[in-house]
């Protein structure tokens, strides 16, 4: 049947125009029934066509990152997450490896309206202290107060959006301080003093920081894998383990990741 949740150009559903009475009651019941059926269809679709498979159709390689992101989002969809804090990811690596594209594909999966559901903030535009006002809006009495902030204005329209902070290492420390509040409490206060709740949002930061160190460590892992293969062949090992994976070591976490954070 017809979709009772369909909105017109003004963003109104049929229920908005129904007067109190039998018609309004029927429309409310139809909305609830349709929403439940839609949730079941979406859950079945996710089961048959999981997020990992969707992402791998658009991104070559990066299986570890894809599996980690998909697992976190699946836990969120199933309710196995902290409702008081939003999901936050940090993608590190050199340019061209798919950091931004992965964020876009996550937004496309989470939201049918990609224009509102995906917010991209180029953090190189917030390198100066005074540019914090562009982020959350100017306080009363300052130029641009009525316009609002670039981030807060978009989060008001879609509080559960996927927000990409591109090249976050280039932003001014004061902007990063605001982001810490956003990540920790899941809310943000704009220049007008209004609080935007966005605990259901997904925040993704990207950075090229330490890309050389990460690449160097990857080469080291590759050399270790080759050395292990040579050792097995030299010792005539019959029971060769199936493509043994060298996982990210504690040394990598301590020497590369922790200094970045």
TrEMBL record:
GO biological process, one term: cellular response to heat
Coiled-coil annotated residue ranges, if any: none
Domain AAA+ ATPase residue range list: 85-233
Species: Cyprinus carpio (Common carp)
GO cellular component, one term: mitochondrion
GO molecular function: ATP binding; ATP hydrolysis activity
Name of the protein this chain belongs to: ClpB homolog, mitochondrial AAA ATPase chaperonin
Keywords for the protein's UniProt record, in alphabetical order: ATP-binding, Nucleotide-binding
InterPro entries (UniProt xref): AAA+_ATPase (IPR003593), ATPase_AAA_core (IPR003959), ClpA/B (IPR001270), ClpA_ClpB (IPR050130), P-loop_NTPase (IPR027417)
Keyword DNA-binding attached: no
């Amino acid at each position: 049947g017809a979709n009772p949740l369909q909105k017109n150009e003004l963003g109104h559903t049929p229920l908005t125009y129904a007067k109190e009475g039998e018609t309004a009651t029927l429309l409310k019941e139809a909305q609830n029934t349709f929403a439940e059926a839609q949730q079941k269809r979406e859950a079945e679709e996710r089961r048959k066509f999981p997020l990992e498979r969707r992402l791998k159709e658009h991104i070559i390689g990066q299986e570890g990152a894809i599996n980690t992101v998909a697992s976190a989002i699946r836990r969120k969809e199933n309710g196995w997450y902290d409702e008081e804090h939003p999901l936050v990811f940090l993608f590190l690596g050199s340019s061209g490896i798919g950091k931004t594209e992965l964020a876009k594909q996550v937004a496309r999966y989470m939201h049918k309206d990609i224009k509102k559901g995906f917010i991209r903030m180029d953090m190189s535009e917030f390198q100066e202290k005074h540019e914090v006002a562009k982020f959350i809006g100017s306080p009363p009495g300052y130029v641009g107060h009525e316009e609002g902030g670039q981030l807060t204005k978009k989060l008001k329209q879609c509080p559960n959006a996927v927000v990409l902070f591109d090249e976050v290492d280039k932003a001014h420390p004061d902007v990063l301080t605001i982001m810490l509040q956003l990540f920790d409490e899941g809310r943000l206060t704009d220049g007008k003093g209004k609080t935007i709740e966005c605990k259901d949002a997904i925040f993704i930061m990207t950075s090229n920081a330490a890309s050389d160190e990460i690449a160097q460590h990857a080469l080291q892992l590759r050399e270790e894998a080759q050395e292990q293969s040579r050792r097995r062949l030299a010792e005539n090992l019959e029971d060769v383990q199936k493509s043994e994976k060298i996982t990210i070591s504690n040394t990598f976490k301590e020497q590369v990741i922790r200094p970045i954070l």
